[in-house]
Amino acid sequence: TRTPVNVTVTGAAGQIGYALLFRIASGQLLGADVPVRLRLLEIPQAVKAAEGTAMELDDCAFPLLSGVDIFDDATKAFEGANVALLVGARPRTKGMERGDLLEANGGIFKPQGEAINAGAADDIKVLVVGNPANTNALIARSHAPDVPAERFTAMTRLDHNRALAQLARKAGVSVADLRKLTIWGNHSATQYPDIFHAEIAGKNAAETVNDQAWLENDFIPTVAKRGAAIIEARGASSAASAASAAIDHVHTWVNGTAEGDWTSMAVVSDGSYGVPEGLISSFPVTTKDGAWEIVQGLEINEFSRGRIDASVAELAEERDAVRKLGLI
Ligand code: NAI
């Protein structure tokens, strides 16, 4: 039998955690033949709730789940981790300035980066979900100097999936007919969902849709503001869809993108497409054998250039702000 893969999940007692853990344990993260051991990290006040979730995991009798351990200490939680899903974060509360938010999250992602550096397995793959996800990933990464930078990623797969759903609806097709959609930049309202290289049943999506007003006034804002619309409707932020996107992100990273397609992941920039080196920005990415590559050579039109530059400028501002705070 195979050795179980250690999956560390932070914020395990939160609402995304509740939607995520059962799917990991059932084999949807890594594959139906890969046993997993869950290592849950929570703050001390939430450990009891995490224990309750662990009882329910027991009660599912998942054949692939070889154990659940719960920690309130990051060093222990990341020991031997092969996959780390960093979901727990400090949300923005009323009256909180952006600097306060970045500082509070620095207090979470700096020690977690250090713990990953100290004890994670050599093949560690990190996905940051907790917001501001790109910059939290940057903070964690900068405190894990011994871990290759490409192992730290942030989630824009929910944005990608949201964009697929909107485009499929507009075109009257199934999401399965769509390829090569891209989310560029920051997981924030400035993100740019790009359909200029996307394909609908093999034909260029932007040309097929041929509706620039829809693109600018409907599609882009709907995707970018979807999180707020969910909160408005549900009275709580997206949880099951976020968990589903986290499953997709890691599954694609580990198992590869399909021939003729790509996905969106926020990864460390090598300077591609004018994104300053070192920023963790969303790109079109292919994956193979557990490694990702930024898709090269795409022609970026003027409209896309402006949108990408605006989102990347926001990432650079966030980086400068955390640098000023001494967090990176
Ligand atoms: P939640 O508030 O329900 O759960 C967060 C959990 O994290 C809580 O149980 C809390 O105790 C825990 N936590 C806080 N500090 C921690 C620490 N230092 N170590 C371990 N656990 C810690 O929040 P929810 O809805 O589960 O969302 C989690 C994060 O995901 C938020 O930051 C949210 O903004 C973000 N998010 C990101 C998305 C993306 O597309 N990248 C989409 C949706 C949400």
From TrEMBL:
Transmembrane segments: none annotated. The keyword Oxidoreductase applies. The active site is at residue 187. One of its GO terms (molecular function) is L-malate dehydrogenase (NAD+) activity. It catalyses: (S)-malate + NAD(+) = oxaloacetate + NADH + H(+). Catalyzes the reversible oxidation of malate to oxaloacetate. This is Malate dehydrogenase.
